[in-house]
Write a structure and sequence with these properties.
- It is a single chain.
- The protein has a seven-stranded antiparallel sheet, with helices on one face.
- The protein starts with 7 loop residues before the first helix and ends in a 6-residue tail after the last helix.
- By secondary structure, the protein is of the alpha+beta class.
- It contains five helices and seven strands.
- The protein has one domain: START domain (Alpha-D-Glucose-1,6-Bisphosphate, Chain A, domain 4), CATH 3.30.530.
- Helix 2 crosses helix 3.
- The longest helix is centred in the C-terminal third of the chain and has 18 residues.
- Helix content is 30%, strand content 36%.
């Protein structure tokens, strides 16, 4: 008689570390405020993107299956069109979306409540390690994500009282 019960080996999650980028940062602002800054287009325009970038949102339908279309304007004058499809929204704890314009990846953002502070963990998960490595080399994805989170930190810290 064989058991249908999964073994530890069968139920263990796959190791995706070779195809992911993970950045964690603590913000001096409450979780609900940081979540709002990440999900509301009136706030996104003030901080989204690496240093020197600006943002134009063309559409944002914030719901599972909804689409966010935007253009990041680089300091060199280049425009980078982007499209995101929201997969999961668990306000104010977790956000999952797929970046469907190249480079393709899934982003999972967790917003952990540390009292008056918020700890964000942002994970970009690519289909392959090669695609992750190519994206790191071609667009500086690790540094870009760090700079983007740095800009978010400055934004929420400076505007704690006015973000709603």
């Amino acid at each position: 008689m064989t058991s249908a019960r999964p073994t530890m080996r069968d139920s263990a999650p796959a190791d995706t570390s070779d195809r992911g980028i993970v950045v964690t940062r603590v913000f001096d602002a409450p979780r609900a405020l940081v979540f709002t800054a990440w999900t509301d287009p009136k706030h996104l325009a003030h901080w989204w993107g690496p240093n020197g970038f600006t943002l134009t949102t063309h559409a944002l339908d914030f719901k599972p299956g909804g689409i966010w279309r935007f253009v990041m304007h680089g300091p060199d004058g280049r425009d980078y069109k982007n499209e995101v499809v929201y997969v999961e929204i668990a306000e104010p704890e977790r956000l999952v979306y797929r970046h469907v314009s190249p480079p393709h990846f899934q982003m999972t953002v967790t917003f952990a409540d540390d009292g008056v502070k918020t700890r964000i963990t942002a994970q970009m998960l690519f289909e392959t390690a090669e695609l992750r490595d190519k994206t790191i080399k071609a667009v500086g994805a690790v540094e870009g994500l760090k700079q983007t989170l740095g800009r978010l930190g400055e934004y929420v810290t400076e505007r704690k009282e006015s973000i709603r």
